[in-house]
Request: fold
Amino acid sequence: MNICASPLAEHPNPPPHAFALPVRTTRRRTLAVGLIGPGRVGGALLEQLRTAQPRLARDHALDLKLCGVVARQRMWLDCDDAELNGRHAGAQTWRPSDLDAFAAHVHGAGDRHALLVDCSASETVAAHYPRWLAAGLHVVTPNKLAGSGPLERWRAIRSACTGGARFRYEATVCAGLPVVQTLRDLLDTGDELLAVDGMFSGTLAWLCNRHDGQQPFSALVREAHALGYTEPDPREDLSGLDVARKLVILAREAGWPLSMEQVAVESLVPLTLAALPADAFMQRLDELDAPLAAKLAEARARGGVLRHVASLDRRGRASVRLEVLPDAHPFAHTRLTDNVVQFRTRRYCDNPLLVQGPGAGPEVTAAGVFADLLRIAESLEPRA
Reply:
């Protein structure tokens, strides 16, 4: 969503897969794009951009120009060897990465629309956002560190947008699901957020759905790790910190100055395992089995189910923990890696508003990023 222009200037948006720019126009627009972090999500986004470029140029008079890619140690700029690129279908010349030089290259002389996509998970990159936005560069990201990091930096990012650059971050919460935009639409039309509850982790949703006592919990974690559902170190999922970041982002969207230190997080990782090297932790995964088996037994004794839930109430109290929910609860019937978010507002008080769907995976996350990019592109004026 866009925090840098009048929120009412944008119409409520459909999910990313349904989003479309206005059909056929003779007013051509060019958007220079630079990508930071060509990993799983960044790689999926590059493929989506490549596939969509001809259609967007033909049907919507939008030229997306990929100007460069930055990895952790190297970067490629489209000026490095244009002839080689043309003759060998994108052969690239790489140079040492330099974020300032990269941003300056994408921005050009300031006479074109330019946008940076940050698909990294880097604090260093997020720290550059205020300066990039102040210089007129649009920024789109699934990187949660800007929205959930130091409150002063978040305020600096918002202040930097006053010059017209836009900052969108839908994919920081529940990948491609329209969660941030839904909340923004409620607030912009005069509603008031009273509380939000959600299952914000596709990994933990999958583990809870599969944890039926037939296999030890550790076996399910190993399976999820092998399938690529978890982070390389599963503790990043099991700790609940990633979920807490998403809750902080939604709280700040509603104008509540919540910080990570204020979220009560109950980790699934015992303290004895928290500081181990990743390999040693994986070898001792079995130590999770007894506590999780006890939790499952408690849920069954109470006629409920186990779900990993984040909550924020009207007093600003925030928590992330494994809960026993009654079988009639809407969160009890999620499937696979489903994320679900429940907004309780002044309008949706007795019957809360739910947003639910797959909330994990590089393709759906990249689609959420791409949709943000297109929403910015929709607002651009043609430039010579």
In short: Residues 1-20 have pLDDT under 50 and may be disordered.
